[in-house]
């Protein structure tokens, strides 16, 4: 019996995700099979945010560890998954995504160089339209200069703990502040954030399906406002877009 601690822990925050979660879990299983260190080196954790559907049972049925997190803050859900993680490297993926088969190999290779504190895999959209392409282009410009992106977010567990994990008080923007904090930590030892090439995760377009393909222009305005005021707790906006968006 192999009782060695896993190399990776991939943590999936989930609220009523029984429809799309199987796609992600299947892609993780494929990536585990492609990883040279063996599938057992990668544990899967679903942090269930008090779902009212079959999310928890579905995740357990796919062999994932399930931890229940009641606090309705996405940062708290991510942290709840990280608290039970045993891996040396922590990875975070949205439940409506799909990861690349070489994800874990690429992450291990880049962290082994010692040049990077962590990073992201980036995303590719599951469909295209003029609005989506414009949004993607706008975000890629920002990502190019900041190295802040989406997809699978990864770092060493020791570094996650060093910055205190995700901010649990922010209703949104916790993913950006996490990467900014990770970048600041890296600068203290001449390490950088990175955005991997060739292993982009598939990004769900369900928010665009729901709010329209050009809605991100309004989101950008709200994001700029939050940056200027440093207020990431607009409850009406957060509830409509994330916490009570119809799932």
Structure, described:
This protein has one domain: Spore Coat Polysaccharide Biosynthesis Protein SpsA, Chain A (Alpha-Beta Complex), CATH 3.90.550.10. The protein is built from ten helices and nine strands. The chain has helices spanning 21-34, 55-61, 74-83, 103-112, 130-146, 157-162, 174-187, 206-211, 216-229, 235-243, and strands at residues 8-14, 42-48, 65-68, 89-92, 116-120, 123-125, 153-156, 192-195, 201-203.
- Secondary structure: number of strands: 9
CATH class: Alpha Beta
CATH topology: Spore Coat Polysaccharide Biosynthesis Protein SpsA, Chain A
The SSE order reads EHEHEHEHEEHEHHEEHHH
The stretches of 5 or more residues where confidence is low (pLDDT under 50) are none
Descriptors for this entry?
single chain; 247 residues; alpha/beta; Spore Coat Polysaccharide Biosynthesis Protein SpsA, Chain A; seven-stranded mixed sheet; two-stranded parallel sheet
In short:
With 247 residues, the protein is of the alpha/beta class. The chain has a single domain, classed as Spore Coat Polysaccharide Biosynthesis Protein SpsA, Chain A (Alpha-Beta Complex), CATH 3.90.550.10. It has helices spanning 21-34, 55-61, 74-83, 103-112, 130-146, 157-162, 174-187, 206-211, 216-229, 235-243; strands spanning 8-14, 42-48, 65-68, 89-92, 116-120, 123-125, 153-156, 192-195, 201-203.
